[in-house]
Design goal:
Layout (H helix, E strand, L loop, with lengths): L3 E4 L2 E4 L4 E7 L8 E7 L6 E6 L6 E3 L7 E6 L4 E6 L8 E8 L14 E2 L3 E6 L1
Parallel strand pairs: 2-11
Antiparallel strand pairs: 1-3, 3-8, 4-5, 4-9, 5-6, 7-8, 9-10, 9-11
Length: 125
């Protein structure tokens, strides 16, 4: 079992950038595929990006393609989400999830086994 902690959220102007981190304290994050999801107030949680355990494959929601980049450094037990060209509609709580079944892409929230507490991203217009 893995314990996840997100960090890096904050308030930025539209067009700005943030880098989110998802870290595991038990040094086992490399055993899992990782997905980023977000949830805005009053809306359903939606898929943002995913990366397989090896880091060799990445996937993005259409809404963030070309703006967000997911990466991982397994030696640091950390997955990153670099967010550029931020828009007001990116405002949400961002969560990272870990999936025990490795090497298979999934954008479905129910397939992820563990979740962090979330980090707030607010983009002002």
């Amino acid at each position: 079992q893995v314990q996840l902690v997100e960090s890096g959220g904050g308030l930025v102007q539209a067009g700005g950038s943030l880098r989110l981190s998802c870290a595991a304290s038990d040094r086992t994050l490399s055993n899992y595929d990782i997905g980023w999801f977000r949830q805005a107030p009053g809306k359903e949680r939606e898929f943002v990006a995913a990366i397989t355990w090896s880091g060799s494959n990445t996937y993005y929601a259409d809404s963030v393609k070309g703006r967000f980049t997911i990466s991982r450094v397994n030696a640091k037990n950390t997955v990153y989400l670099q967010m550029n060209s931020l828009k007001a509609e990116d405002t949400a709580v961002y969560y990272c999830g870990a999936k025990r079944t490795r090497g298979t892409y999934s954008h479905q929230m129910g397939t992820y086994d563990y979740w962090g507490q979330g980090t707030q991203v607010t983009v002002s217009s």
